[in-house]
């Protein structure tokens, strides 16, 4: 099983587990003592193809799924709706695998955006969206090739018989709404560490382009970052897999997990990167960056590895590309003026209890969920008593518990 998780916030904790078979399983992850009884689940199948992202609506009443079938589907879990009728909307407007979907928190359950391997961003309004011939909804706003602002990409040329690098992928890897600027969405892509902030307010007759020339000029990002992944004169940037918004002590910050195995920090709304400004002569090099989070064992050189920040804004969790490892960082100092983030060797807390790649991670209130290639999803909670017992008798406790250790 290759799954992605999204943790429901508020009320009874639930977990949405999406698979490469196109199904979504909803499990109650309330703390329980009887490990022999699997929690009750509800299963829906919105797709016949792999699901690459799943998101709860802000009020936890709907789920949006992004799939390899080039569509987004909106499903309800209401018990009053028959299982075969739970897919409410089919959204079609991309020409490639849809990699990310995000709900607009200002329009609960009505407005969302999506990003695709085709490099485009689509905005959807479930209240007024037009429908194609087959009944699928079409986007109310589209941004084609959102991370190719220079226009058409030319194919590299080389003498006959010579190999040249291909054109970097411009696919959209993640989208994130932010409340620091009205109607704004942040996007990341697979080929660089540059982020864009877009104005995606619902279009009106006054804002639509009047001519074909004007249409080609619109839209443009309100803010664009520089690339913090180009450390010490690196020749090319590294892609971003996930974006996460800070809260509480880390409000007005955006964290981005790169395939350079580091978490970079950006400010809002300008997207100015705080990380990546290290002196190349530093003894510790990139691991000494006070605004980048890394560990010598953390490898995130896979676009299936994700990251998430806790609702309180203090903790950041990342998956890992090998050995069943996930990592937890205290990012509370990142929001302080002049505060130094914890980075470098020994900075993270290592979470071990699975095998293979740990891909999806997500939070509920006081609960972290991790999903791995071994087909398991684990939920992690702080428990002082269990932690003490694990330290006292690790061999015996290993049969029932997985626990974190200081890296």
TrEMBL record:
<feature type="repeat" description="WD">
    <location>
        <begin position="44"/>
        <end position="74"/>
    </location>
</feature>
<comment type="pathway">
    <text>Protein modification; protein ubiquitination.</text>
</comment>
<keyword id="KW-0853">WD repeat</keyword>
<dbReference type="GO" id="GO:0030674">
    <property type="term" value="F:protein-macromolecule adaptor activity"/>
</dbReference>
<keyword id="KW-0833">Ubl conjugation pathway</keyword>
<feature type="repeat" description="WD">
    <location>
        <begin position="351"/>
        <end position="380"/>
    </location>
</feature>
<feature type="repeat" description="WD">
    <location>
        <begin position="91"/>
        <end position="134"/>
    </location>
</feature>
<protein>
    <submittedName>
        <fullName>Denticleless protein-like protein</fullName>
    </submittedName>
</protein>
<dbReference type="GO" id="GO:0005634">
    <property type="term" value="C:nucleus"/>
</dbReference>
<dbReference type="InterPro" id="IPR051865">
    <property type="entry name" value="WD-repeat_CDT2_adapter"/>
</dbReference>
<dbReference type="GO" id="GO:0043161">
    <property type="term" value="P:proteasome-mediated ubiquitin-dependent protein catabolic process"/>
</dbReference>
<keyword id="KW-0677">Repeat</keyword>
<dbReference type="InterPro" id="IPR019775">
    <property type="entry name" value="WD40_repeat_CS"/>
</dbReference>
<dbReference type="InterPro" id="IPR015943">
    <property type="entry name" value="WD40/YVTN_repeat-like_dom_sf"/>
</dbReference>
<dbReference type="InterPro" id="IPR001680">
    <property type="entry name" value="WD40_rpt"/>
</dbReference>
<dbReference type="Pfam" id="PF00400">
    <property type="entry name" value="WD40"/>
</dbReference>
<dbReference type="InterPro" id="IPR036322">
    <property type="entry name" value="WD40_repeat_dom_sf"/>
</dbReference>
<comment type="similarity">
    <text>Belongs to the WD repeat cdt2 family.</text>
</comment>
